[in-house]
Amino acid sequence: KSILLRRFVSRLLCAEENAPCDRCHQCELLRAGTHPDFKHLIPEDSKQILIDQVRKMVEWAAQTAQQGGRKVCVIQPAHFMNVQAANALLKCLEEPSEAMTIILVSEEVNRLLPTIRSRCQQFTCHTPDREQAIAWLEQNHESKLDAALLLDIAADMPLRAMEVIDDDYLELRRRIADGLVDILRQKGSPIELAGLLSGEPPGLVLDIIYQIIADTISRSSTGVEWRNSDLSAQLEKLAVIDLQTRFEFLDRLSRTKDVLGGTANANPQMLLEWLLTG
Ligand SMILES: [Zn+2]
C-alpha cells in the first residue's frame, strides 16, 4: 500500500507526460524527501495528529506551489487526527483548489468524521489475488526467476516485487543467507558479516534477515513450504537452531529496525553487530 501511495503521489507531482517517470527533477526531489510542494502529516510524539500540524499545513497550502505544479499533502493515518485537527482540515476541504490534492490514508475509515468522509473520493485498496499477481508479474517483471517465487520473496506484494527485487537484491539476499549459515557453522563471525554488509542499505539488510528467519520459523512450527524456496539449502541449515532462539532473534531484529527507523544517526554496523552477536 505504501508503494502504491508513493507512486500515486509521484504521479501527481511528476513533470513528465509519462508520469511517474522516476527521473525528472520533481521525482528526484520527492525521492530525496525534499520536495517543497509535498507534505506528509503523521502523528508526532503522541499517537495523534494535532491541530497545530493541520493549521501549519493549511497555511502551507495557501501559498503558491514553489515548483509551479501541484501541491500534495498526505495525512496518514487520517483517523489519528483528533476532533480539533479534523475540524481545522474540514475548512480546507470545503474550499477545494485545483492546485492542491489532499490524500487521507486510513485503515479505519469509520473513525473519520462523516463530514470529512463526505468531502472525499474513496478508493479501497484490495490485495490482488495470487493468480492475478503472478500473471501481472510475468508480464511486467524482467527477471529470470519464476513469478510465483518472486511473489513469495516479496511477501505477496506484487508492487514490492516490482520495485525492490532485482538481480542486486537477489544477490544480496543470497550473500546474507550464506553468511548466516557460515556463522552457524563457525566459519565466519557476526562481526565479519556485519562488516561485509556495511555498504548495503541497512533497512534492506535487516528486512532480508527478517524474511529469512521468519521463513524458517513458519516452516518449523507449521510445516508450510519454504517461501524462499531458491534458498532452501541454506534455510534447512538455519532451521536447526532452537526455535525459541529464533523467536528471540526476530524480537531483537524488530527492535533494531525500530531504532534504525527512529534515528537518522543510528550506526547501522553497530546495530547489525549487536543483533548478530546475540
Ligand atoms: Zn518525473
List the keywords.
mainly alpha, 2 domains, Rossmann fold, 14 helices, elongated, Zinc Finger, Delta Prime, domain 3, 3 strands, single chain, binds zinc ion, three-stranded parallel sheet, 278 residues
What does this protein look like?
There is one protein chain. With 278 residues, the protein is mainly alpha-helical. It folds into two domains: 2-117, P-loop containing nucleotide triphosphate hydrolases (Rossmann fold); 166-277, Zinc Finger, Delta Prime, domain 3 (Up-down Bundle). Helices cover 56% and strands 5% of the residues. It is built from 14 helices and three strands. The chain has helices spanning 2-13, 25-32, 51-62, 83-94, 114-117, 130-140, 147-153, 158-164, 167-184, 190-196, 202-222, 232-238, 243-262, 268-277, and strands at residues 38-41, 71-75, 100-104. A three-stranded parallel beta sheet has the order 1-2-3, with helices on both faces. β1 (38-41), α3 and β2 form a beta-alpha-beta unit. α9 packs across α11 and α9 runs parallel beside α12 (232-238). The longest helix has 21 residues, at 202-222. The protein is elongated. It starts with a helix and ends with a helix. Bound molecules: zinc ion. Zinc ion binds next to α2.
Topology record:
Layout: H1 2-13, H2 25-32, E1 38-41, H3 51-62, E2 71-75, H4 83-94, E3 100-104, H5 114-117, H6 130-140, H7 147-153, H8 158-164, H9 167-184, H10 190-196, H11 202-222, H12 232-238, H13 243-262, H14 268-277
Parallel strand pairs: 1-2, 2-3
Helix pairs in contact: 3-4, 6-7, 9-11, 9-12, 10-14, 11-13, 13-14
